[in-house]
Specification:
This protein is mostly helical. The chain has helices at 3-35, 42-59, 63-90, 97-119, 158-180, 182-192, 194-199, 204-226, 237-251, 256-276, 279-296; strands at residues 133-135, 138-142, 145-149, 155-157. The strands form 2 sheets. It has a two-stranded antiparallel sheet with strand order 1-4. It has a two-stranded antiparallel sheet with strand order 2-3. Helix 10 (256-276) runs antiparallel to helix 11. The longest helix is centred in the N-terminal third of the chain and has 33 residues, at 3-35.
Length: 307
């Protein structure tokens, strides 16, 4: 395959990574933006979504209905667990920044070991509900002008297109929730000043529990979407958490728009560099980009500088 079609294939693979990464990192950014909590256990909710997708799909015999049930049930279960963790642990430590980091590290190990004991150490696949391979055209300039050709190997599956569309739809819904609804107004008021919001009758404790649950549900949904492409494994949350932190730092802590832009940047560069060079080099470049952002723009691409 020539360089052009090869590059297009790498961009498409990177776009799938960017879509899932944006979905997961938006949950992490939302929790930090509203609650000022660095959720170290966020990657485990991603893993939980993938593992629950396998469990639900297997219990229902696989197929499209099993996957649809997993898309609904896994985020709900992960969100409920996160709400319970918030009410029983984070609320009791007063959302103190240092203590919540320690608490979420503990939650990380609890979820990881619970998955190991119940799910096992094996990586397990989940069949996609549909997976039609779609050949893609390429423009080639010949003696008679430009014309379409169909290079061998230049294709994408219908499921990967679905992942990109689903992530875009959920992120658009999250943006609408935050900017166009009363629930979003309450979240933004709590984010600006929790004490003042409480003085005006906003139940800040319930808002925090809901935000923590919503962040975990977004991570679990990302895990369900990726599991037909990558197998479910109880250790898969570590790398996902690292990439999410990179995205959130580059985009700006608490900025949904910055998170999406940074996810596209990291996802596309990861896809292109991994295809033409190596996945390790892609991770090194992402880490280097974080260092440059921290040096020259500590608030991130779209974050607000502290006053």
């Amino acid at each position: 395959m020539e360089f052009g079609p090869h590059l297009m294939l790498a961009v498409l693979e990177g776009a799938v990574t960017a879509a899932v990464l944006a979905l997961m990192a938006s949950g992490l950014s939302l929790v930090f933006g509203v609650m000022r909590v660095v959720n170290v256990a966020h990657g485990q909710f991603f893993m939980l979504g993938a593992v629950l997708a396998w469990a639900v799909s297997s219990a229902l015999g696989g197929g499209a209905w099993g996957f649809v049930a997993a898309l609904v049930l896994a985020p709900l279960i992960a969100g409920a667990l996160a709400v319970a963790a918030d009410l029983t642990v984070l609320k009791r430590v007063g959302y103190d920044p240092e203590r919540t980091i320690v608490a979420t590290i503990g939650l990380l190990y609890i979820l990881q070991q619970a998955a190991l004991m119940t799910y096992g150490p094996e990586a397990r696949p989940v069949a996609p509900p549909f997976n039609t391979r779609l050949a893609l055209p390429w423009v080639e300039f010949g003696p008679d002008g430009p014309g379409l050709i169909w290079p061998w190997g230049l294709s994408i599956t219908s499921y990967k297109l679905f992942v990109m569309a689903a992530a875009a739809a959920v992120l658009a819904g999250l943006w609408a929730l935050m900017s166009r609804t009363r629930i979003g107004l309450v979240m933004r008021a709590t984010q600006l000043d929790g004490e003042t919001a409480q003085a005006f009758g906003i139940p800040v404790g319930r808002v925090y529990a809901g935000v923590f649950g919503l962040g975990a549900a977004l991570a679990a949904l990302a895990g369900v979407l990726i599991v037909p492409i990558q197998q479910a494994h109880y250790l898969m949350g570590g790398e996902a958490l690292l990439l999410s932190f990179i995205v959130v730092i580059i985009g700006g802590l608490g900025s949904l728009g910055g998170t999406v832009i940074a996810a596209l940047l990291i996802g596309l560069s990861d896809g292109i560099v991994s295809v033409f060079f190596s996945p390790t080099l892609a991770k090194i470049l992402a880490t280097l980009l974080v260092a440059l952002v921290l040096v020259f723009r500590p608030e991130g691409l779209m974050g607000k500088a502290a006053r």
